[in-house]
Here is the input.
Amino acid sequence: MNEEKAIEVIDLKKIYYLDGVEIQALRGITFSVNKGEYVSVTGPSGSGKSTLMHLLGCLDKPTSGQVLINGRNTAELSDGELAAMRNKEIGFVFQAFNLLPRATALKNVELPLIYKGLPAKKRRDLALKALEEVGLKDRVYHLPSQLSGGQQQRVAIARALVTNPSIILADEPTGNLDTSAGSEILRILRDLNRKGITIVLVTHEEYVSRQAQRIIKLLDGKIISDEKIGTSIFS
Ligand SMILES: Nc1ncnc2c1ncn2[C@@H]1O[C@H](COP(=O)(O)OP(=O)(O)OP(=O)(O)O)[C@@H](O)[C@H]1O
Ligand SMILES: [Mg+2]
Here is the structure.
């Protein structure tokens, strides 16, 4: 089997230095994610989940090891190429929705397209389409403060989607939501995966992790298990 890889991570290590103290957040992580796969990453608080997501998303650089996104070694890209790749290939969804408080849902979703330099009309059309995709067609002029938590997270998903990324990285996207709003977010992510988008989802919650086809468990910066739901592929 030679499936194409969306993400490949090789012996990834991340050490943070804080006040002269060394914190080994990732201690040698190796795995890959095929295109179109839906993987969840779980593990206790402090096990390195968010650190891993930041490195996958090229928001931070590893201390050592490699991250390949769609076959490209991110260490070999210039800052400009990295930013372009991030903008084109990756959509982020965070636990704290990270919306601009003074901008409408529509403007928040248009934002990544402004960075891309698209004309206003095109931006608006694409943003409206993304908002429609997450079921918020009737809320486009609302400010974040005028939306429920679940709706705010759906705006954040629309913002992640609007650039048509091949990969979505979601770090505890349901962490601030009640079960019903959380289920709606998970349904949207599942639909996006069915359309072919590769998804990596970080969660504490067992039931959330079971949305994926595969669960990677971290402990103290290492992978302790990696299994397809039903069968172990950990060696
Ligand atoms: N910027 C930083 N500077 C120093 N240490 C950090 C930094 N970010 C994270 N750490 C440390 O690295 C370790 C891994 O943190 P990380 O945020 O990846 O954990 P996590 O698995 O996402 O936890 P949680 O479930 O609580 O979100 C922790 O011990 C944390 O204290
Ligand atoms: Mg975290």
Observations:
- The pocket of magnesium ion (ligand 2) is lined by residues 49-50 (CB under 6 Å).
